[in-house]
Amino acid sequence: MHQIHQKIALLLLLPLFIGCAKLDAHQDFRFQDSGKREYRTTTLKADLIKHFGHQFPKIKILLIETPTLANPSFIAQNEAIDSIRSDIEEMQVMFVVACPTEEYSSGYHTTKETARTLAKKHSTFRLTLMAADGQVLKATAAPLDGKELSKWLQE
After folding, report:
1. CATH code assigned at 104
2. Distance of alpha carbon 149 from alpha carbon 153, whole angstroms
3. Whose CB has fewer CB within 10 Å in the chain, the N or C terminal residue?
């Protein structure tokens, strides 16, 4: 009988645990483009309308976290991105680089301070795919080749 009560208690608490997991599944941080225009992961669609006067209904963010810009995983990931560059515009993906040791100045990037804050959770290479509201859709600690990346971004 005691085991039944434990199982019931666990089932009653399960929605609370699931709710907590959903709260942790959002990323909220600021980043900028090479023109110093600022964006925020949780208000991306509104930021894009403000800066460009155009809606991007399917826009996603791929956050590329790297300990250094010379990191082999980061270099491999950039090569994979270059291999699918012709398809990227259609996919509506913003690639945002976060590096705590050097500021990536071309394209979308975080400040070094923001990158350090993100790196507190982990200090290795990491890819995180997010919806336009900052919701984390997927994450991996390994670089993806062009074919894997293309599939990942289209799902």
Report:
1. 3.40.30.10
2. 6
3. N
Q: Could you tell me if residue 2 is inside a domain?
A: no
Give the separation between CA 66 and CA 73, rounded to whole angstroms. Answer: 8
What is the rounded CA–CA span in Å between residue 79 and residue 65? 15
- Distance between CA atoms of 118 and 103, rounded to whole angstroms? 14
Residue 84 lies in a domain: yes
Number of structural domains the chain divides into:
1
What are the structure tokens assigned to 99, written together? 């590096």
Tens of pLDDT, residue by residue over 46-98, are 999 999 998 888 999 999 999 999 999 999 999 999 999 888 878 899 999 99
- What Rg do the C-alpha atoms of the chain give, in angstroms? 18
Other beta carbons within 10 angstroms of residue 148's beta carbon come to: 13
